[in-house]
Design a protein that fits this description.
The chain is an all-alpha fold and 251 residues long. It has 2 domains: 69 residues, no CATH class; 157 residues, no CATH class. The protein has 11 helices and 2 strands, in the order ααααααβααααβα. A two-stranded parallel ribbon has the order 1-2. This is Conserved hypothetical membrane protein. Keywords: Membrane, Transmembrane, Transmembrane helix.
């Protein structure tokens, strides 16, 4: 067997893209050729050096298994696309939550409302766009559902949850440091708090602590989806490992 064929058999079993496989193959070939050159310098014939190099590296299945176990869930080429998707998600979310024309129409109404309340001498009504009591808005949706349209309720409940699902899902895929539920929780909470505060300060929306709860729930759901996906990927890799061991033991 030639070194090129040996390297090709090793990378053919790896759970990654063809571009990543080519990178691994190139690196593996560098190591193989380096060892072969050392053996030739020691006095071995070319063919003997190739056979001894393959023997020292081990079986292709064993090398493939070791490389597979050390690889991240997604390789660097797929990670680039996930990173692009993440930045697109951040841009769209920022637009919807802070920069959309609808936000500025609401801002005009909010500013006008606050000015009128101050002129009427009832400044307490300028705080209608704030809720700092947990579950107050959620309970209001339940007990006074007839005051709201179905679309409004779904937009505020489901929308606040779904908007942060990609954050909890994509972050652990891109950054290994975020493969922790605690870090995802605190980052989601911080991001939601910043957005709610900006909406309050610039009158682009209301500050609602229930939105924080729903946003964090969405981030945790996204993280849960990541954990399930990661478990399925690792299970598949372990099954492939078991199949390799089973086929090897049959000879």
């Amino acid at each position: 067997m030639k070194l090129e064929q040996y390297a090709e058999q090793v990378v053919s079993r790896l759970p990654c893209s063809k571009w990543e496989k080519q990178d691994v193959k190139d690196e593996l070939m560098d190591h193989l050729n380096s060892m072969k050159s050392e053996l030739v310098e020691e006095g071995y014939e070319e063919q003997e050096a190739v056979l001894l190099t393959i023997q020292r590296f081990g079986s292709t299945k064993a090398i493939s298994r070791q490389l597979s176990e050390s690889m991240p869930l997604i390789d660097k080429y797929i990670r680039k696309w996930v990173m692009t998707l993440f930045f697109l998600y951040v841009a769209i979310s920022s637009y919807l939550l802070l920069l959309s024309p609808d936000r500025f129409r609401r801002r005009a109404f909010t500013v006008e409302w606050k000015q009128r309340m101050l002129e009427y001498g009832v400044p307490q009504y300028t705080h209608l766009f704030q809720n700092t009591k947990p579950f107050q808005t959620l309970v209001d949706y339940v007990y006074h559902y007839d005051n709201y349209s179905f679309g409004t309720v779904m937009y505020n409940l489901i929308g606040n949850v779904m908007l942060f699902v990609p954050l909890g899902l994509l972050l652990p895929l891109i950054f290994m440091s975020f493969q922790s539920v605690h870090r995802v929780f605190f980052l989601t909470l911080s991001a939601s708090l910043i957005i709610e505060t900006l909406q309050l300060l610039f009158s682009l929306g209301s500050f609602d602590v229930d939105d924080l709860l729903l946003n964090v729930l969405g981030g945790l759901i996204g993280y849960g989806m990541f954990r399930v996906g990661a478990a399925l990927i690792r299970k598949r890799r372990n099954n492939n490992k078991f199949d390799d061991d089973l086929s090897a033991s049959s000879f």
